[in-house]
Amino acid sequence: MNKRMAALGALLLLSPAAAMAAGNFHYSLEQFALIAGYEDCVREMGRQLGDDQREALMDKLLRERGLSYQPRRVANDRRQWAYPEYGSQRRLLEYMIPANKMDCLERHGGRY
After folding, report:
1. pLDDT, tens digit (0-9, with 9 covering 90-100), for 63-91
2. Which contacts of 59-65 are long-range, i.e. CB under 8 A and separated by 24 or more positions?
3. What does the pLDDT look like over 10-62, one tens digit per residue?
4. Does residue 5 fall inside a structural domain?
5. In this structure, is the dihedral angle defined by the CA atoms of residues 102, 47, 82 and 22, taken in order, positive or negative?
6. Coil vs helix vs strand at 109
7. Distance between CA atoms of 112 and 99, rounded to whole angstroms?
8. Angle 29-45/51-64 helices, nearest 10 degrees?
């Protein structure tokens, strides 16, 4: 019985779906909402900028707020938030992201 349970436990640990379902997020819900809001803000403010320049601006603005912008980690978290079990958090993000975008535009809109 113990061997069977150990094998099952090892199988679950190695399963990519289990790792994703375990909630291995890089950012908290609040941090993700801030990052996503600032992404929208920088897209709007920096239309004339290239991709690298927008990423650098994102990192600069988020560092002012105490976060580091790491696109791969953000993309990973975005995929995880799409899972059905995070539906209530996604509904909360629908309110938080636009609020953070507006905050960013109010703080930085005239400068860039």
Report:
1. 999 999 999 999 999 999 999 999 999 99
2. 61/104, 61/108, 62/34, 62/35, 62/38, 65/34, 65/38
3. 444 444 444 444 468 999 999 999 999 999 999 999 889 999 999 999 999 99
4. no
5. negative
6. coil
7. 19
8. 130
For 42, counting Cβ atoms within 10 Å of its Cβ (0-12 exposed, 13-18 middle, 19+ buried), the class is buried
Domain count, the chain: 1
| Structural domain boundaries enclosing 37 | 26-108
Q: Which two tokens stand for residue 102?
A: 């507006």
Residue 61 identity: L
What distance in Å separates the CA atoms of residue 15 and residue 72, rounded to the nearest whole number?
A: 21
